[in-house]
Design goal:
It is a single chain. By secondary structure, the chain is mostly helical. The chain has one domain (about 1-310): Na+/H+ antiporter like fold. The protein has helices at about 1-30, 35-60, 65-90, 100-110, 115-125, 130-145, 145-150, 160-165, 165-180, 185-195, 200-215, 215-220, 225-245, 255-265, 270-275, 280-310. It is globular and about 50 Å long.
Length: about 300
């Protein structure tokens, strides 16, 4: 029981830290220290630069066969988790709902990078971030395939080149090469990569705070669909994945915790960028992002607690 409470406590503490950073972003926007253009720049730096550095840095360890096998398992479970979200959201949000594209996208794609990585690194300091990158790789493959199809009303053609030349996927490829060859970056370069990676969470959460400042939370709370998205995204699929993993033999606790947390994170920040790009209602997406992020203060520790209890 002490181990259960310890894991729940670490999760809760990490979520509280993130909300403090979100509050900093809110205050910065209120006092005009961060403009709308500035928040977009912060998002791009976090999404393409800091995230890439985090991934490469996480692979700077000696090759380990069990870690390599767990990477494959996490990737397979990530496909399963996203598959469940696609299936459930398609069943729940029909095309009769004018916002079905937004609601499905917000349900399927979670903040597994910006929120997931700091949570996993706190829970699983040894190999957690590496396992998170396997999940994030699957997320990005689906984001640039199914996510594009879902978002674009005009039927944009998929680009395999765009998928595999995205900074995150390239970083995973570089990281895997370094991991399997046990090549270490030169000391100065490795330290610089680590420093850049440390920007990831603060930048992402501060940008989220800017969206909180711009959103009408009270208006959002009156929309039923927001609660449906929140329940599926923050509770339901995480519990389903915990139950499924309960019956997979010889699955390590590290893998179970990583997949459970990453399956239960709030709506992805990239949902707003996709909404803007494909001319969907970005304000509505922002409201869903804010509400699911706020609710995750409670639901993420609960998801970890339920998972630990399910696994016995």
């Amino acid at each position: 029981m002490n181990d259960v409470l310890s894991q729940v406590g670490i999760t809760a503490n990490q979520v509280i830290i993130m909300f403090i950073l979100i509050f900093v972003g809110l205050i910065c926007h209120k006092f005009k220290l961060i403009s709308d253009e500035g928040s977009k720049s912060f998002t791009n730096i976090a999404l393409y630069v800091a995230m890439s550095a985090v991934i490469i840095d996480s692979y700077q360890i000696d090759f380990d066969y069990s870690v390599a096998m767990n990477l494959i398992i996490v990737a397979l479970l990530a496909f399963l988790s996203h598959g469940l979200l696609i299936l459930i959201s398609t069943f729940v949000f029909s095309k009769k709902n004018q916002n079905y594209r937004i609601l499905r996208f917000s349900t399927i794609f979670g903040n597994c990078s910006f929120m997931g990585i700091p949570l996993i690194s706190a829970l699983l300091p040894e190999h957690g971030v590496i396992y998170a990158t396997a999940y994030i790789t699957v997320f990005n493959i689906l984001l640039w395939t199914y996510g594009v199809v879902l978002s674009d009303k005009n039927g944009e053609k998929l680009s395999v080149k765009k998928i595999f030349l995205s900074p995150v996927i390239l970083s995973v490829i570089i990281g895997l090469i370094l991991f399997f060859t046990s090549i270490k970056l030169p000391a100065a370069l490795g330290q610089a990569v680590s420093f850049i990676g440390d920007l990831n969470t603060p930048l992402a959460m501060i940008v989220t705070g800017v969206f909180v400042a711009k959103s009408n939370i009270l208006s959002s709370l009156r929309k039923k669909d927001v609660y449906i998205v929140s329940f599926i995204k923050l509770i339901l699929v995480g519990v389903i994945m915990s139950v499924i993993m309960r019956f997979i033999p010889n699955l390590s606790l590290e893998v179970k915790l990583a997949v459970t947390v990453l399956s239960a994170v709030p709506t992805a920040s990239t949902a707003i960028m996709f909404a803007q790009k494909y001319e969907n209602d970005a304000v509505y997406v922002g409201e869903i992002l804010v509400i699911t992020t706020v609710m995750s203060l409670i639901t993420l520790p609960v998801s970890v607690l339920l998972g630990m209890l399910i696994w016995g």
